[in-house]
């Protein structure tokens, strides 16, 4: 029996209907505080917002959550940043599980060889990797002939990767094909989509 059609939800901010994979759910804690429900499984009523840092900020500013839930709620001032942190935690947790399952390798030489031979499902590069290190790894990607097919995850810093994997100075890693890689890629895509609209400190208003 085939899998059913993906469930669509409505963004409470824009009223646009989208697949649930392109939105994020928010739910109330028992004490009435709004929190991101990144897995979409918290009990009770929830509010769906487009998977976007800017959309969450705007929804909080326009009091969309209170109107949707029709009750008095407390919305954290840093809701968008809290949501980003939760998405990062889901990704780092999945990376740790992938390493324990033997589905993730580290070390520039090993990663480069796996990528160049076409054996990687995803390349992971620290967001703060040095330009020269990044360039050399991208050369391996091009030599593989699978540049368009290889997922490239760049949303976590070296420190975040190190904490997730229990290692120091993690700049590059790679995932071998399989369920663990698919899970990491899915969470990485959600985080990347969310932070694409994040304002940087030096952005003008």
CATH topology of the largest domain: 60s Ribosomal Protein L30, Chain: A
User: Can you write the helix and strand succession as a string?
Assistant: EEEEEHHHEHEHEHEH
Structural class: alpha+beta
SS strand fraction: 15-25%
Note the gap between the termini.
Answer: 51 Å
Largest sheet: 4 strands, mixed
Radius of gyration: 19 Å
Number of strands: 9
Strand order of the largest sheet: 6-9-7-8
At the first level of CATH, what is the class of the largest domain?
A: Alpha Beta
Low-pLDDT windows of residues: none
The structural domain count equals: 2
What brief labels describe this structure?
205 residues, alpha+beta, Hypothetical Cytosolic Protein, Chain: A, 60s Ribosomal Protein L30, Chain: A, 4-stranded mixed beta sheet, 9 strands, Ribosomal_eL30-like_sf
Describe the structure.
The chain has 205 residues and is α+β, with helices and mostly antiparallel strands. The chain has 2 domains: 70 residues, YlxR-like (Hypothetical Cytosolic Protein, Chain: A); 109 residues, Ribosomal protein L30/S12 (60s Ribosomal Protein L30, Chain: A). α5 links the parallel β7 and β8. The N and C termini lie far apart (51 Å).
Write the layout of secondary structure elements.
Blueprint (H helix, E strand, L loop, with lengths): L7 E3 L6 E3 L3 E6 L5 E4 L8 E5 L2 H9 L2 H6 L9 H22 L3 E3 L1 H9 L5 E4 L5 H14 L6 E3 L4 H8 L6 E4 L3 H17 L10
Parallel strand pairs: 7-8
Antiparallel strand pairs: 1-2, 3-4, 3-5, 6-9, 7-9
GO molecular function, one term: DNA binding
Pfam family, one: YlxR
Protein name: DNA-binding protein
